[in-house]
Amino acid sequence: MSGDPTSRFAALRGRAVAEWAALVQSRQTRILVQLAGCGIAVGAMETFQDLVQATRGGTAEATVELVGCSGLCYLEPIVEVQFPGGPRVLYGGVTPDRAPELIDTVVSRQVHRADWAVAVRGPDALPGIPSLETLPFMKSQLRRVLVRHGVIDPTQIGHYIALGGYSQFVRALTSLSPDQVFAEVTASGLVGRGGAAFPTARKWETARKTPARPKYMFCNAEEGEPAIYKDRRIIESDPHLVLEGMLIAGLAIGIDKGYVYIGGEHHLAAERARIAIAQMYEIGLAGKNILGSDLSLDLEVRVGAGSYAVGESSAMMSSLEGKRGMPRPKLVRSAEKGVWAKPTNMNNVETYANVPIILEMGGAEYAKTGTRRSTGTKLFAPSGQIMRGGLIEVPFGTPLRTIVFDICGGMANGGAFKFAQPGGPTGGAMPASMLDLPMSNEDCAKAGTVLGSGGLVIFDQSACVVDLGIYMMAFNSIESCTRCTTCRIGTARLTDIFQRMSRGEGHLEDLETIRWLGPVMIETTLCGLGQAAPVPAVSLVDHFRAELEEHIVHRQCSSGVCRILTAGPNPHRLEDARVLKISV
Amino acid sequence: MSSDAALPAGFDRRNASYEQIRADFWPVMAPYADLEGAILPILHEAQRRYGWVSETTVRVIAEFLRTTPPSVYAVLTYYHELMTTPPADVHVLVCAGPACRVAGGPRLQAEVEESTGITVGDTRRDLAYSIGSSACLGICMHPPVAAINLAVRGNLRPGQVNRMLREALARVRQGEGGHG
Fold this sequence. Notes:
The structure holds two protein chains of two kinds.
Chain A: H1 5-24, E1 29-34, H2 37-40, H3 44-56, E2 62-67, E3 79-82, E4 88-91, H4 99-107, E5 117-120, H5 136-139, H6 157-162, H7 167-175, H8 178-188, H9 200-209, E6 216-221, H10 230-237, H11 239-253, E7 257-262, H12 267-282, E8 298-303, H13 313-320, E9 344-348, H14 349-361, H15 363-366, E10 377-384, E11 392-395, H16 400-407, E12 417-422, E13 430-431, H17 441-446, E14 455-460, H18 465-479, H19 485-503, H20 509-524, H21 528-532, H22 535-543, H23 545-554, H24 571-579
Parallel strand pairs in A: 1-2, 6-7, 6-9, 7-8, 10-14
Antiparallel strand pairs in A: 1-3, 3-4, 4-5, 10-11, 12-13, 12-14
Helix pairs in contact in A: 7-11, 8-11, 10-11, 10-12, 11-14, 18-19, 19-20, 20-22
Chain B: H1 18-29, H2 39-50, H3 55-65, H4 69-76, E1 90-95, H5 98-101, H6 105-116, E2 129-134, E3 146-148, E4 151-153, H7 160-173
Parallel strand pairs in B: 1-2
Antiparallel strand pairs in B: 1-3, 3-4
């Protein structure tokens, strides 16, 4: 192919749009199965294979396609059916044993079943089937990053291009200068989505201004912390959005090589990222002289092997260099001297995914969504004892109450909200008194917790805070890279404290130990993970002191989770409580 | 050569000799000769091909990378997913994440332990089953979750996992599946 980048891309786009239109206006019934890690875990792959078998065998005339996860994970496995000329209709709970029923009663008869269908994709409803946009789960969401999730086939670059993909990169390549791209990102106020919420433009600027070459870039998809799965779902469902963001960043900073570092457990995400990058090379969107321009940028997928600490930026660089993935002291910022001692830019998956959106909207317009210091939208992964869990996207500053009660439908099994745990094992617990807290980085920090990367586990009264304390501290202890003494021993010590409490062997002084050990660990550890490790323990003491004291003094677990061996109050602890003037 | 190619006849992945591994694994490593930071990708290849990384394999890798076995070993032992003991035929990973913990995770773990006769962290002496525990498998909205030979399964109802374990063992022993 020849010509300038604009005409080359126009040709690519024209072909993609035509193919997409042919697909949408297909004269055959389309069956689309949402295949991402979450759906596959509940049988979506078997459903997919059964549907392929059934339509190939001739019982029903239809094509079976794969799409990503739409985030409505509580309904999985989800299958969409589109009759010729009609809208796409979502069916929930299509487990392999119900696949024949879908074929017999829907596909063969060419009628939708209002008693089974969940929603119609698009703004219009069908009789008895609401529009997807009016579902309570969707109504309070603002979907920008997630907009193509479940709509396109993530293994087809053409689908992404047909729906406007890569056009912002091409605009940046052909009609904007790197300075203009950089100015838009600065104006947008974009902050990192991996947990630290560092202003993205400032990171980029340092890497830009450092003259050394080659320059490297990382897309951080390690995502090793518990109860968060947004990064792998983005890559599984719409990988090119992230890769377009990387291309734009590469253009603005002057990057020579980009690595997508994916956590070892995320096999499907790694596979889809590899497919996506191979397709980019195939059509000239990566490698030497992209679309015939002067820009050259190589992209490569690297896979980790199960280590939470590698999610820390300097640890990730060590890991890539073939060393133990341990954080290193940042005497010089990695934007100046990172991997192979060269300037390195590192952003989270969701951060890159926002970059094309910023160019499309304009930085100033983008900054109007969210709060002053947390602009744009944020992905959350609500799970736990709620009615509807999955992957959601809301503007920064949306109150926790909206997420829990409007979007997620409140507590399951008639339970009462006890607390939410944001940010995996490093966030502070959010009790019911924080339900109206706006979910933004600055408001969460002010309230003594972190928004983190978007994990959000919601618990009712049946959850015991001592038990969760054990879990979180044990996690931090196991995952500590053990370089810093206070992290290595501090996390073990905190685990031990919660374990003793759970056995009914706690002391009231333990609570004070947690209170002073926390700040010590924060002051004396090298990386952000060590500094965040004691936060959940301290917040449990702050918000659930009474429940902890109950375990210690009365040797009782009102949730019935802890197996306390000795019944009845501990006379020694009652005496302690009297001396310490604690009413328990 | 890809690590998916069949193992040569007479190759026992649990007890292969130095000569056998060197002959078998060298061509797998060949494409990584010029890759920067090749050690982790090579360890992945070894784990995929043999299900674990033995001391002998470490020696072969060190030779290929022109480094010392301890420097390979240092990387190998840092990551949870890379195994330094021979795997059982069926490796079960029970999710211990917070969402599973409050929704049947402990019950599932007890069930897995009961049907295999071993506890988390153990490998059965006949190498039929080994059980591990994962901090979180990331399928938090379908608890409780477990992975059987890397296939992640959610919504595991009581009584279900026992049958799945036996089926997985039968599949592996018939030679249909492997260690992924």
